[in-house]
Specification:
heterodimer; A: mainly beta; Immunoglobulin-like; four-stranded antiparallel sheet; 11 strands; globular; B: mainly beta; 0% helix; 50% strand
């Protein structure tokens, strides 16, 4: 089975800190995603990547950046954390064109910004 | 742009009952994928069922089945003989089969199965 690992399950940071959320997948998937989950809003796409060093903005990229230096790792960066970035963050990976498309998810990072 | 709407924020049923979760979507595409994901308290997203729009037959997975109405852009999930372990958030999602493939999610439905 595909394994998508997020480095932290819970994270508490202070306003203005630079925050790194790390995600690693072990199945050589080309596509990786960062979603944010908030009650009543479902999952919203922040950024995604189709290949190493490639990135595309999702629906809510403001205040975030990403890095994909290696195929298996996709990092989400909060340059200056703010309280409205308190949320659950979910990473996912995906291999297109295999005829059984589905996203595999990590178990999420609950981030609190104080 | 595609949108997905789940109009039931919360639902609650008794164990062994059948429950149907609603989902509608908006797209101009003719072919696409639709999904139902389950998120139990562990937070792990689990794929429940997947439907390809060009297939007219409704997908089924054991106690889970969908009612896919392409013309109405409706994709409801039916859970038969509900079990306590079905208690979770359920998300409906849409994906194009080409180009910028990404999942577009609905708002979610919190389902509680009562003993």
């Amino acid at each position: 089975d595909v394994k998508v690992t997020q480095s932290s399950r819970y994270l508490v940071k202070r306003t203005g800190e630079k925050v790194f959320l790390e995600c690693v997948q072990d199945m050589d998937h080309e596509n990786m995603f960062w979603y944010r989950q908030d009650p009543g809003l479902g999952l919203r796409l922040i950024y995604f990547s189709y290949d190493v060093k490639m990135k595309e903005k999702g629906d809510i990229p403001e205040g975030y950046s990403v890095s994909r230096e290696k195929k298996e790792r996709f990092s989400l960066i909060l340059e200056s954390a703010s309280t409205n970035q308190t949320s659950m963050y979910l990473c996912a990976s995906f291999a297109p064109g295999q005829g059984n498309e589905k996203l595999f998810f990590g178990s999420g990072t609950q981030l609190s910004v104080l | 742009a595609q949108t997905v709407t789940q109009s039931q924020p919360e639902m609650s049923v008794q164990e062994a009952e059948t429950v149907t979760l609603s989902c509608t979507y908006d797209t101009s595409e003719n072919n696409y994928y639709l999904f139902w994901y389950k998120q139990p308290p562990s937070r792990q997203m689990i794929l429940v069922i997947r439907q390809e729009a060009y297939k007219q037959q409704n997908a089924t997975e054991n106690r889970f089945s969908v009612n896919f109405q392409k013309a109405a852009k409706s994709f409801s999930l039916k859970i038969s003989d509900s079990q306590l372990g079905d208690t979770a958030m359920y998300f409906c999602a849409f994906m194009k089969p080409w180009g910028a493939q990404k999942l577009v999610f609905g708002q979610g439905t919190r389902l509680t199965i009562n003993p």
